[in-house]
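[recover] target loaded
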């Protein structure tokens, strides 16, 4: 980078830091967290196996072992050190291995916080999954929809380097044009106008843009190649544009009601109406770039996700890797694949992921696994719920 360009670039960021309002948390009239008395701690019976829980806990511990002990993450209005989060998991693992995860012991050893929600915005638990898609490493008549790695012109700037107090944890994503940093291309520009053609960052090609769109929403996928080989891809970066729900778009247009909306309903509608497919898909400006991964799927803290145990939340409010307990309901299918009933979900979960659509205190996304069964559940899971966080006592 030459000297004059460096000056222009830094000047732009200085102006940005001086005149752009600081990203703020959503307003709330009540504290975001409610510390529970021992008698208020819910029954903590777990509806899954101990092996998956132990695996998820150990994966969060591997994350904490890679970051400084004094790094702090938000939990509602407070901040918690990695040292305390790690100590919480180590003590929890001791109790798990000795079979003492009862409410009385938890209340003695841990501070328990219930995430409090505004009554006008009830908490919603949704699901996501890892799709299995047919793809090829070279384009052709059958495989013509590109999946991109990180483009060579994508620029990511850590704004905290210029104003740590005001922009802690905030990034600017864009590209350089005419000596200025400008927003990166939108989905319409990338897929519709083919702005990345010739960039050399294509990883593979899929059969159709609907599959590619939902791959972006899920953030990871398993690719089945024509010769029988399977490979995994995971999230690498995004274009920095806002996530805009195409489901909400169709609800607002009166195409279907909120009760009718599901991922499966969206797919079906787009296939039946190819004349508006691109218009609807381009409504979501957010675009994800991928990388090859050996294991997966991998969450935002760079650990492999555990089906039924890993959740995605908004990192502005919930500490990365942290121990939680989730209460909600999940749909159960009948023989025709329709929703037969709702069954209770009560389990320990680990906060190991994030997502463009997961914003605010009241959003939890449960990782449901890989393949068709996981897709069925993830596409139909949209229920109210409760989320509790746990911190070991006597550490501050």
């Amino acid at each position: 980078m030459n000297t004059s360009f460096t000056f222009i670039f830094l000047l732009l960021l200085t102006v940005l830091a001086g005149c752009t309002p600081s990203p703020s948390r959503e307003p709330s009239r009540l504290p975001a967290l409610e510390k529970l008395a021992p008698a208020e701690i819910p029954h903590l019976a777990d509806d899954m196996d101990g092996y998956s829980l132990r695996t998820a806990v150990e994966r969060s511990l591997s994350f904490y072992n890679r970051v400084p002990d004094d790094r702090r993450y938000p939990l509602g209005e407070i901040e918690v050190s990695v040292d305390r989060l790690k100590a919480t998991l180590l003590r929890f693992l001791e109790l798990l291995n000795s079979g003492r995860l009862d409410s009385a012991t938890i209340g003695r050893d841990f501070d328990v916080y219930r995430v409090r929600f505004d009554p006008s915005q009830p908490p919603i638990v949704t699901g996501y999954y890892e799709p299995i898609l047919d793809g090829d490493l070279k384009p052709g008549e059958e495989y013509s929809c590109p999946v991109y790695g990180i483009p060579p012109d994508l620029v990511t700037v850590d704004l905290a380097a210029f104003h740590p107090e005001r922009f802690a944890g905030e990034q600017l994503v864009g590209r350089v044009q005419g000596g200025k940093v400008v927003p990166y291309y939108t989905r319409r520009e990338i897929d519709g106008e083919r702005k990345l053609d010739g960039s050399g960052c294509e990883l593979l090609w899929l059969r159709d843009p609907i599959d590619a769109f939902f791959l972006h929403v899920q953030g990871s996928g398993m690719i089945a190649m024509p010769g029988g080989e399977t490979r995994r891809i995971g999230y690498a970066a995004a274009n920095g544009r806002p996530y805009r729900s195409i489901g909400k778009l169709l609800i607002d247009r009166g195409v279907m009601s909120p009760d009718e909306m599901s991922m499966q309903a969206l797919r079906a509608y787009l296939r039946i109406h190819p004349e508006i497919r691109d218009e609807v898909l381009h409504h979501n400006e957010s675009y994800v770039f991928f990388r090859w991964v050996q294991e997966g799927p991998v969450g935002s803290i760079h650990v492999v996700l555990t089906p039924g145990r890993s959740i995605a939340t908004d990192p502005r409010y919930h500490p990365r890797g942290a121990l939680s307990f989730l209460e909600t309901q999940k749909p159960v299918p009948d023989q025709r694949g329709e929703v037969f009933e709702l069954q209770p979900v009560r389990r320990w979960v680990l906060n190991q992921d994030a997502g463009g659509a997961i914003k605010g205190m009241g959003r939890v996304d449960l990782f449901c696994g890989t393949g068709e069964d996981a897709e069925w559940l993830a596409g139909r899971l949209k229920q109210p719920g409760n989320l509790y966080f746990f911190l070991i006592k006597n550490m501050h």
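[recover] notes: The longest strand covers residues 339-353.
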